[in-house]
Amino acid sequence: MKPITIQDITTYKFLSGLAFSPDGKHVAVVAAKAEVKENGYRRHIYVADSKTMKFKKLTGSVPTGMFVWSDNNTIVFPRMTEKEDKEAIAAGEELTVFCSIDIDGGEASELFRVEAMATGIKKLGDDFVITAKTDLNRPDLTGLKGDKRKAALAKYKAETKDFQVADELPFWFNGMGFINKLRSRVFIYKTSSKTLVPVTEPAFNTSSVSVSENGDFLLITGVKFDKLNAARKDGIYKYCVAGGKMTELVPSGVYGVGQAAVMGDNVIFMASYQENDYDFVSPDFYSVPLDGSEKAKKIMDFDGDAGCQTGSDCRLGGGTSFKVVGDSLYMINTEDNMAGIVEIKDGKIRTITDKSVCFDSFDIKDGKCVATAMTDVTLQEVYTVDLESGSHKKVSGFNKKSLDGKYVAPCTPMSFINKDGVRIDGWVLFPRDYDPAKKYPGILEIHGGPRSTYGAVFMHEMQVFASDGYFVFFCNPRGGSSRGNEFAHLAGKYGTIDYEDLMEFTDKVLEKYPQIDGNKLGVTGGSYGGYMTNWIIGHTDRFKAGVSQRSIANWVAFNFVSDISLFGKREMQTDIFTDPDKIWWHSPMKYADKAKTPTMFIHSFEDYRCWRPESEQMYRSLLNNKVPTRICFFKGENHELSRSGKPKHRMRRLKEMTEWLYKYINA
Q1: For 19-72, how does the pLDDT look when each residue is reduced to its tens digit (9 = 90+)?
Q2: How far is the C-alpha of 162 from the C-alpha of 148, rounded, in Å?
Q3: Most buried of the four, 159, 245, 461, 599, by CB within 10 Å?
Q4: What is the per-residue pLDDT across 483-501, written as a single tens digit (0 to 9) for each?
Q5: What angle do CA 583, 589, 591 make, to 5 degrees?
Q6: Helix H segments across 454-605?
Q7: Helix and strand tally (H, E) in the chain?
Q8: Rounded Cα distance, 463 and 378, in Å
Q9: What residues are paired with 268 via a beta bridge?
Q10: Sign, Cα dihedral of 133, 134, 139, 141
Q11: ω into residue 450 within 30 of 0, thus cis?
C-alpha cells in the first residue's frame, strides 16, 4: 500500500457547524480543505435531505464556517465579494456582509450588512442576533461620513500601527492577538429598520449567546470587566427581547461557567466552583430559575469531561456538543479515551453511543440525530445516530478518496497496570510493510493538556511516521482527561508520576515488541507534551532524538506571561513569591544542563499560551552544552500551528520534525 505523506494533509476535508434546518428536513455542514496555493483553507457549505443524507455542495468558497438557517429553505452566511467593501475594511472600517442562498439552487445574494466585524449569527424571528468584536479604543465615528470619516480612520490606524498600550489582563490571547480593550458584544439586527441594536454593554465580553425556543429572550454568558479578567468567571444573563431588560441569573466572578442551556423554567449549566486560585475543580451541573427568583444550586456531581477531549490534528472548526431537547440534556462526554453522546435526565447519565466512535459535534431534531465523528482510524464523516439504541451509520463520503490505497496503521491497544496499580491506556502503530523478523526504530508521542487524551483516532502526524517505517507508541499518563478527576489531578506533581508512567509505558512497549530497537528511539510532544519532552531529555538519555513543540520550560518565567497565567499557579499549587524553589524544581530548565539528547524546538511567533522564550531557554542551554539542537520559528502562527496553522506551515513543521528525528534516531 502507498504511504501516507506529509502532503496528504491537503487532501483531507474537515467538517464543522453541522445543523438541521428548522423543520428537520435538511442538514447543512461546512467542509474545509487546505489549499497550498492560497496557503489557507477553502470552505464550502454542503446540504443534504435528512432522509437520503446525500450531500451536495451549496456554496462557492466562504471565508468562515459561520452560517445560520434563516428558514427551512434558506441559509445565511457572511461573504465579501465587492472590491469597495474589501478596500473599506482594509482602510479600517468595521463591516460584515451577509448573503442568503436557497438550498434548491441559485446564486447567493446580499441580504444585509452590518457595521461590525461579526463573529456569530443566530436567527431571532424575522431578525438576527449578531455577535461582533468591539474595540473600546476605537474612536466614535458616529455621524462622520466621506472624507472626514476616512481621515479619522487613517489617523487611528496610523496611531495604533506600531504603538499599543496595555492596561488590562490578559492583553494578549492565543489566536486573537492583542486584545486589550477588545470585547465580544451582542447585537440584534432589525430587518425592518435595517439597524443594529446593541444588547450588551460595550465593556461586557460575551462568551456565548442562544435564542430561546419561542424567541422571547436571549440567554447570554459573559462578564463585564475593567482591567482584570484573568480568572474568566462568567455570569449568566437573560435578555428580554420585547422590553430590552437584562436580568442577572448568575453573577460573574463566582463560577467558571462552561456550557449553558434553557430547560423548562430553568437554566442548566456546567460550572466549576473554586474558592481560590489553587483549586483544581472539574465542572458539575447547576440549575438556576429563569425568573431569577433563586440562586444557582448544584443538581448533579460530574466526574467526566464535557466535549470531545480526544486529540487529533484532523479537525478544524466546531459545532454543537451540548443541547437540551425537552426534559433531556444531550452532550458529548469524553470517557475512557473516546468521546460519546450521553443523555442526562432526572439527575442520571445514560451513555448512548459505544466507544468505537469519537464524536465531535451533533444536532438533534424531532428525535433524529446527526453527528460528525471519526471511527475506525479514519477521517471525519457525518453519521446518523439512533438515540435509543446508540447505533450509528456513516452517511457521508467527504473523505472517501483521501485514504484510498494508503497504509493506515491501526491503533493496537497497549494498556497496562502501572507500579502504583493504576491502569494506563496506550496504543501502538505498526510501521508500513511490517516484518516481525526485522528491527525498527520507534517514536514516543506525548499529548498536550495535560487534561487531554489520546484515543484510537486518526492522527496525520503519527500516520506519517508509521508510513515512513517507524513504530509509533502513545499513552495517557496520569494527569490526562477521560478517566475522572482523581486520575486527572496532576497539580503539584508535574514531572513525577506522569514521567514515571511514560517511562514505564516505553518499557512495556519494548518488552512486548522486541522488533523495536531500543537504541533507536525518538520522543516528541506539544504544549504539555513539549513540557514532558523537555523534562525527559533532562532526566534520561534513552531517546536518541527529541522534538519539543510549543513547550513550557520554566514555570518561574511562565507565571506572568501566558494568556492563562493562573494556570501556572494552579498547576504548581503555589506561586513564585510563596515557594519559588518548588516552581523551579518542576521546571525542565533546572535540568537542561544534563540533557544530551539532540533536540529540536518548534515555536510560533504569536503563541501567547506558551511564549517563545520557553523554547529559546532550552535551545540556548543545549547549544551552550554543545548538544545538537535547532529551533524553528513560525511567523503568523499561534499555539494551534499543528491543528489549524497555514497549510504550508503545517507541512514545513512536519518536514522539519521528520528530518530531525530520522537523522538522529538512525545515527
Answers
A1: 999 999 999 999 999 999 999 999 999 999 999 999 999 999 998 999 999 999
A2: 23
A3: 599
A4: 999 999 999 999 999 999 9
A5: 100
A6: 460-467, 485-488, 497-512, 528-537, 555-558, 566-572, 580-585
A7: 12, 41
A8: 11
A9: 261, 287
A10: positive
A11: yes
